[in-house]
Amino acid sequence: MPQVVLVNPLIPPNTGNIARTCAATGTPLHLVGPLGFEISDRHLKRAGLDYWPYVDLHYHESLTDFKAQHQHQSGRWVGFSTSGACSYIKFDFQVTDWLLFGSETQGLGTEVLAACDETVYIPMAQPHVRSLNLSVSVAIGLFEARRQLGLLA
């Protein structure tokens, strides 16, 4: 099953909404610090509602810590970025993929993008709109991966 990775998320309600999506789909959620909030933040808890017990949550203090964790598991790093090489619609997801998303203001940094095995983007019809909200982007990417892998039933 694909896993969702948020690298340096900044806005608690976005992360809470993503946690809720992960709880609903049984998808592991990895938070890579530094975070722009405390895990105990009331806005984070509020956005996740009472679903937090159902979130398979993993916290990594740094990208280095996350890389060490990933070495013990297989799978590609698929970075979602406005500068991705391929539309997420045309990308062939695999069950062991790690779907990486960056912060709301900066996206994935160059170090993370360079470490990704693949990069994808979500097409925008309006050229003046740079990106979608982080929680929306995660839902789009995760549900497309799950659709391709037959995990929507």
Summarize the structure in words.
By secondary structure, the chain is an alpha/beta fold. The chain is globular. The two termini are 14 Å apart. It has 5 helices and 7 strands, in the order βαβαβαβββαβα. It has a 7-stranded parallel sheet with strand order 3-2-1-6-4-7-5. Strand 2, helix 2 and strand 3 (57-60) form a beta-alpha-beta unit. The longest helix has 15 residues, at 134-148. It has one domain (3-148): Alpha/beta knot. The model has no long low-confidence stretch (mean pLDDT 92).
Structural class: alpha/beta
Largest pleated sheet = 7 strands, parallel
Number of domains: 1
Regions with pLDDT < 50 over 5+ consecutive residues?
Answer: none
Lateral arrangement of strands in the main beta sheet? 3-2-1-6-4-7-5
| CATH architecture heading | 3-Layer(aba) Sandwich
CATH class, named: Alpha Beta
- Average pLDDT taken over every residue: 92
* Gross morphology: globular
- Beta fraction of the residues? 15-25%
Count of β-strands: 7
| Helix-strand topology string | EHEHEHEEEHEH
What proportion of the residues is helical, as a percent range?
25-40%
Radius of gyration from CA coordinates = 14 Å
Name the CATH superfamily assignment.
Answer: SPOUT methyltransferase, trefoil knot domain
The total of helices stands at 5
Cα distance spanning the termini: 14 Å
Q: Give the CATH topology.
A: Alpha/beta knot
